[in-house]
Design brief:
It is a single chain. By secondary structure, the protein is α/β, with parallel strands linked by helices. The strands form three sheets. Strands 1, 2, 3, 4, 5, 15, 16, 17 and 18 form a nine-stranded mixed β-sheet that branches. It folds into two domains: 110 residues, Urease, subunit C, domain 1 (Roll); 290 residues, TIM Barrel, CATH 3.20.20. The chain is 38% helix and 21% strand. It is globular.
């Protein structure tokens, strides 16, 4: 986990100054960025990475996803969110036991890493199994216990969910892997009662956990919650104490001005998923307005059942295009979009002290972009190149904590053909359900 990147054609730091360095050198020792362009390169570190024709930048950070849904890619097409949930929950009920949740997460984590994503905030069933699978692949995987009012697909009663939440810090410690914060994941204000949300909030305070949940993804959700409680989902979160700890709202598409004020006052962040929201017809979150009000916004893919991939490069592009559509092309700042996919995503999750920029003292979560491709030639504006031209196939190498998890576009910790074989064998169980789902 100690190596030197020498003579990188470009290093995009995404630090406070958004520095772009040319012909740069980075020293990584024990997984930590020790120095950038030092006067003297340490003689005791002998592993050298040749940065010629490479762009080195922070790994991308996905602030809202459901990795195991990679097994259900293309399962729910031409539907809105309600139709999506109906079809996907049926398929999950048929196959998503612990081993299958782990298998799907292994597949999703490998796809994410191949696309240059080094951190994912992941909400899914059986988080102990999914976390172990993601750590196996090498991903910085941020997850936590799921909370529903009802037993759900995992069959857990509420008391069991609370007990699992209490045990979660120990579970994380035993699994190991890259450093992450503790998270709890109540699904939403329409699947968790105010009483149960209050209980989750109290438990989060007790164990110093953060919270991630779906909020205001659709207008139908807002209407249903308002009819039931005479409050918006954001107001329910505030009144139940959920916002008393750091929180990430998944989606946050339809937030009123009052909601935005509440979000800002509590330091709540948003995982913006423009691709999924467009595909399901859920609407378009006003990213530019949110950040103008001081709200931290990261980018996310959502799960492969609704977005069909885990490609953060397409998410960046769509996010930028939606700013142009809702405001104007003059309001699109490519460097800000890159920040949303890196340091702002890290800040949203609560790991910006660890990753998100190439800064001395931070962990070496880095990716290398192959600049020899014709579609990346020439370079006039580096941020614009990343947002509007680069893609996941341009990522050639990646490191998490200085560990090389992708080399020459191949994940290093698993056997890709074997993973594909295991996936294809498992999804045969869906054959009887497949008729009429697409």
């Amino acid at each position: 986990m100690s190596f030197i990147i020498k003579n990188a054609s470009y290093v995009y730091t995404v630090d406070d100054q958004d520095c772009v360095l040319e012909n740069a050198t980075i020293v990584i020792r024990d997984g930590v960025i020790e120095s950038i362009n030092p006067a003297n390169v340490p003689a005791d570190i002998t592993e050298i990475y040749d940065g010629k024709d490479r762009l080195i930048m922070p790994g991308l950070i996905n602030t809202h996803s459901h990795l195991a849904m990679a097994l259900l890619r293309g399962w729910a097409e031409s539907v809105n969110l309600d139709g999506f949930l109906e079809r996907v929950w049926a398929a999950e009920g048929a196959i998503m036991d612990k081993p299958t949740s782990a298998l799907g997460t292994e597949l999703g984590a490998a796809e994410a890493i191949q696309g240059g994503t080094t951190t994912v905030l992941d909400m899914y069933l059986n988080p102990d199994a999914t976390h172990a699978a993601a750590v196996k692949v090498g991903l910085r995987h941020v997850t936590g216990p799921i909370f529903f009012d009802f037993p759900g697909l995992d069959g857990m009663e509420w008391s069991q969910r609370i007990a699992f939440g209490e045990a979660w810090p120990t579970v994380l410690k035993n699994i190991g892997g890259p450093e992450i914060p503790i998270y709890f994941m109540p699904h939403s204000t329409y699947t968790d009662s105010p009483e149960h949300l209050h209980e989750v909030a109290q438990l989060a305070k007790k164990v110093n956990a953060r919270i991630n949940l779906h909020v205001s993804e659709t207008m139908n959700e807002n209407q249903a919650v308002n009819e039931k409680y005479q409050k918006s989902p954001t107001q329910v979160c505030e009144d139940t104490g959920i916002l008393d700890v750091p929180v990430v709202f998944g989606h946050g598409v339809h937030l009123s001005e009052d909601d935005i004020a509440i979000v800002h006052s509590h330091g709540t962040s948003i995982g913006h998923c423009p691709g999924s929201n467009l595909k399901l017809g859920s609407g378009v979150a006003d990213y530019l307005h949110y950040i103008s009000r001081g709200v931290t916004v990261g980018l996310g893919t959502d799960g492969c059942s609704s977005s069909n991939d885990l490609d953060m490069w397409s998410v960046m592009r769509i996010a930028a295009h939606m700013v142009a559509l809702k405001h104007s092309p003059a309001d699109v700042q490519p460097a800000q979009i890159v920040r949303a996919a890196t340091i702002d995503g890290a800040r949203a999750i609560g790991i910006d002290h660890l990753v998100g920029s190439i800064t001395v003292g931070k962990r070496a979560d880095l990716i290398a972009i192959d600049l020899t491709a014709l579609h990346l030639t020439p370079i006039h504006n580096l941020a614009a190149l990343l947002v509007f031209a680069a893609g996941r196939s341009d990522v050639i190498d990646a490191w998490v904590d200085g560990d090389k998890v992708l080399e020459s576009r191949k994940v290093t910790h698993i056997d890709e053909p074997d993973l594909r074989k295991r996936v294809l064998e498992r999804v045969r169980a869906l054959a009887d359900l497949k008729v009429g789902t697409n």
